[in-house]
Amino acid sequence: MENNSCFHCGDDCGNHPITFQDKSFCCNGCKTVFEIFNENDLTCYYDLENSPGSIPKEIEGKYDFLSQENIIEKLTEFRSDSIEIATLYIPHIHCSSCIWILENLNKLNPHISDSQVNFGKKTVRVTYNLETTNLKSVVLLLSSIGYEPYISLDDFKSGKQQINRTLIYKLGVAAFGFGNIMFLSFPEYFEVNEYWLEQYKPLFRWLMFALSLPIVFYSSQDYFISAFKGLKAKILNIDVPIALGISVLFIRSTIEIIFDFGSGFFDSLAGLVFFLLVGKFFQKKTYDFLSFERDYKSYFPIAITKINKEGYEETIQVYDIEKGDRILIRNEELIPVDGILINGKAQIDYSFVTGESQKVSKQSGDKLFAGGKQTNGVIELEALKSVEQSYLTQLWSNDVFSKNKEDGFTSITNTISKHFTITILSVAIVATIFWLFVDSNKAMNVFTAVLIIACPCAIALSAPFTFGNLLRIFGKLKFYVKNASVLEQLAQINTIIFDKTGTITSNKQSNAEYEGDVLSDSENLVLKNSLRGSNHPLSRTLYNVLQENNIITLDAFEEHIGKGIEAKHNTINMKIGSANFVGNTKETSVLNTTVHISSNNIYKGKYTFYNSYRKGVSKLFNQLKQQFDLVILSGDNEGERENLKKLLPAKTKLIFNQKPEDKLEFIKYHQSEGAKVLMIGDGLNDAGALAQSDVGIAISEDVNVFSPACDGILDASKFNQLYQFIQASRSAIKIIKWSFVLSFIYNIIGLYFAVTGQLEPVVAAILMPLSSISIVIFTTIATNILGRKLE
Amino acid sequence: MSVIYILLAVSVFVGVTFFVIFIMAVRSGQYDDDYTPSVRMLFEDELVKEKNSISKQTKTD
């Protein structure tokens, strides 16, 4: 570990680290956290991991709303007179040190009796004594040690969430029944005519019957419901033959044991349901720490400070904001409504909304849109609309957001199932008619045997295991997909639409190019040093772009708000800022952001800011152009058109000046023309387009930070591998088709036994699990090979 | 009466017992978080006040 990185958070300490107890810290915040831990014997925090902490943020007044009774009620899960339990979401939880410190909260505040971390969900469940402490002080304590909870409007609405564990119960019941039935049916597999085996046969059989009841009526419930729904909608989905198979198995077995024809097929029945449920369980890969359902509510605060008519501050819920209200926005707070800036210097970060990281400066009287984050001190604004009617939030009133994407989609399994069901039914009928003439006693036997052996367990398992495994492989490669059906739709894509800002451009850096007369060394020196003194976002960016220079003391420095900077050093009198400010009236191009420079009243030139594109964008587009229609759909002006033309293949369509609704309509129009659209975006302004598209993928620099509702989240560092991901999901479809072929072979073997009337329970009990297991092995191996290629 | 009834009763009883334990385990939320407990388990030593010697050994990456 270098001496120069902060002992607490690991950031670079710069030239002037704060030293305390021989350890260096980057800022006072980090040092304070260390002091807190040191005083309370909690320095073990630093032994578990190196520099695990984060810098505590300025939070003064931010959590005042937590003293409001109705808000506390929504946030806590249990309340009594003396005890309160609250679960808080803390995005910073990332290592074992975090778990350790958060579970030792009672050392810092003895009134907290218990705190338990859920690492996957990044939550901590805190139990505290209500008589001596309260929610607000718990939250303040967490914030003071760098673990600031994230409380959004979403927490306010959702209420208490119930975890759905039915699938585990059903699987447990099926596994229990399966094991015990196998155990009981084993003696009869060998058909030894032993005296006491004969004697206890009925008991064994009725026990199996009893064990199969919960399997049929509880565990396989979903298949019956889904088959019924399918038939009602006149669709032969895969659950129709499954439900048919299960009922025939159960009814025939019951009849067999009643009339003592044989031992029945309870073992196959239990095995079938068990394997099917395992497949279902496997397919359900969930990423607890991600949410694919976010709308603006997850971004917005619960409460806001209002300045009432008498000039006092008061905390109100965001939904209660009315037109004309005066609102106070503190540093790092989000603007929840459209409004007019009244007081203060606004520097708004709209990166949530547009993906653009360049901060925007606003003067009093300017209009501010909801969704921006204030980054420079306190501002006051007057609300123009209520929360739900603001420019950004209005988007969510569109119908797309209430539509379920999976509804209109026929999966590969259901496509095949239609033909499969019809074929099997015809085979069963033909065989039955044949046997009616040959040996009518066997006819019913053959009919049921066909339906039993043809039960498409293997077919039903192919897709879940292939996609389930691929979901996990993609997850390891930082491409988080919501569910299996998304992968299937991804394989069918023929049009890809990209957002520009934040998606194909990188948030982290931007480029500036200089045009005009060359600046002398001394002029460059003054330029760099005057930018150093300015806090304007453009100055900061330009400062970072320019080369290092010596630090000099300027003779005069003045910042003209909204215009530029004027600085003087020796003989140089420099003006930096807008075209008018520096005295250039010929300026024509207004599309790109520019900073102009003049020296001693002579116009020198300008710096033009260009987007910096992600690495590999050009290569990716060239890979994609063979198979897909490519479109760039940007909310920005046309300033980057020429740049993009150079960078991207010629056939890429470039469309600018698109509002969020325009993007949505554009996709809708192309879908109506038969396009299968993959939308790739990042900001909240893409939310409509992501919802409308067949597959919507959000690009995220940091997956723990929020991204809009989508079908998949792709880590920005993996953006250039998009083509490989699409190819992999296409290969997955091939794997599934091959495993269909494999299961047909098993079916033909089984049908031979069934049609000829020789289907013994032991054959079914071997053949059915064998086909399922070989499908599982085949798909797992094939997808793993696919995954290795991806890496 | 044969011994087989006893054996059957015992085997079914054992099966049902494990099944009930499983259901109780799911119900209590044991399967909701399958990562944190594995880390928490290693902290037992650090909770004691004289911890420096032990904690050094458990230092991870």
TrEMBL record, chain A:
Magnesium recorded as keyword: yes
Record-annotated Putative metal-binding domain positions: 5-61
Spans through the membrane: 167-186, 206-224, 236-255, 261-282, 420-438, 444-467, 735-755, 761-786
Pfam families: ATPase-cat_bd, E1-E2_ATPase, Hydrolase
Keyword Ion transport: yes
Signal peptide (from-to): none
Designated name of the protein: Heavy metal translocating P-type ATPase metal-binding domain-containing protein
From TrEMBL, chain B:
Keywords: Membrane, Transmembrane, Transmembrane helix
Keyword Lipoprotein: no
Leader peptide range in chain numbering: none
Pfam families tied to this protein: FixS (PF03597)
Record-annotated membrane-spanning stretches: 6-26
Claim: Magnesium is one of the keywords in the record: no
PANTHER family: FIXS PROTEIN
Name this polypeptide is given: Cbb3-type cytochrome oxidase assembly protein CcoS
Organism name: Winogradskyella litoriviva
